[in-house]
């Protein structure tokens, strides 16, 4: 029997995570069954459990982590030099708006984090990494553009980064749950927050 390459295994694993994500987006992490996930992949149960021996709990963790990684990559990709807080914040929101599937995955992942320790830990690590990114970029901008000392910039950004994260989180919640959500008006709000340091 020919040996299966690691690349093949990785691609198959990504395909399973993608199919499982579709199921979770439709029915939530708790609502989607392994039977539905297996059917969505078009693979046998044995093939699925070969990649995810712990079954649904492992798939939930993998799907949640994949979504969180996508958000961090998006935020990191939007960083440009010289750094501009408004352009970065609005750019991240625009990219999220262009990926409603990702925004919905974030929302159900946050909900699952309240009851699943593994997802909670992944979300905590993600938020720490995202806040570190915000801290680093905004503090550097405060030194360069506002003339703050490194110590003052660090103190300032400790407060300000919380506001920035709340803008991102608020967009996800409101865009997914609020009828008639006004995206452009929310962008104006984001610009106002980003301009506080000007």
Automatic annotation (TrEMBL):
It comes from Kocuria soli. The keyword DNA-binding applies. Coiled coil: none annotated. This is TetR/AcrR family transcriptional regulator. Keywords: DNA-binding. It comes from the Bacteria. Residues 33-52 bind DNA. GO terms for molecular function: DNA-binding transcription factor activity; transcription cis-regulatory region binding. Residues 10-70 form the HTH tetR-type domain. The keyword DNA-binding applies. Pfam families: TetR_N.
């Amino acid at each position: 029997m020919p040996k299966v390459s690691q690349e093949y295994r990785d691609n198959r694993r990504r395909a399973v995570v993608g199919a499982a994500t579709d199921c979770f987006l439709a029915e939530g992490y708790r609502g989607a069954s392994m039977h539905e996930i297996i059917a969505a992949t078009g693979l046998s149960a044995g093939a699925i459990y070969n990649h995810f021996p712990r079954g649904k709990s492992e798939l939930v963790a993998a799907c949640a982590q994949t979504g969180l990684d996508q958000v961090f990559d998006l935020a990191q990709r939007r960083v440009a030099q010289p750094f501009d807080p408004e352009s970065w914040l609005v750019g991240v929101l625009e990219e999220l708006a262009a990926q409603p599937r990702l925004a919905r995955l974030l929302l159900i992942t946050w909900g699952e984090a309240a009851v699943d320790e593994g997802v909670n830990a992944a979300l905590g690590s993600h938020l720490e990494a995202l806040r570190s990114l915000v801290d680093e970029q905004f503090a550097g901008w405060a030194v360069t553009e506002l003339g703050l000392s490194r110590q003052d910039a660090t103190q300032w950004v400790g407060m300000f980064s919380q506001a920035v994260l709340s803008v991102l989180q608020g967009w996800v919640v409101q865009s997914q749950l609020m009828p008639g959500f006004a995206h452009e008006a929310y962008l104006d709000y984001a610009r106002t927050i980003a301009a506080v340091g000007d």
